[in-house]
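Protocol step 4 of 6: structure prediction from sequence.
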Amino acid sequence: QVQLLESGGGLVQTGGSLRLSCAASERTFSSYAMGWFRQAPGKEREFVATISRNGGSTYYADSVRFRFTISRDNAKNTVYLQMNSLKPEDTAVYYCAAARIYYASAYAYTEGSYDSWGQGTQVTVSS
């Protein structure tokens, strides 16, 4: 499994921005599609965004599309989530996850596809 460490969470006002980072320990980072999920208090964990191994394909949940951007730097073994126009309903613990996928252009948006998870980072958006 890949060791994943998220950072960049915090408290921000409505309309503000944050950039989450997730550093992976695995040298073969480029072998993994990456995803971001989140879990709000009292709710189940939900998909946010995913990016293919080569970074060429991305997919977003409807609730964050056009506001969030996922990207990756395979040379730095890091995936990012740029979050703009934040809303109170974006408040959650954000988790990054890694999925070993054969095809370089493929991604995954179901939890069951991911076999490595980070510990999470808290994002709080105040109204």
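Step 5 (inspection) to follow. The mean pLDDT is 96.
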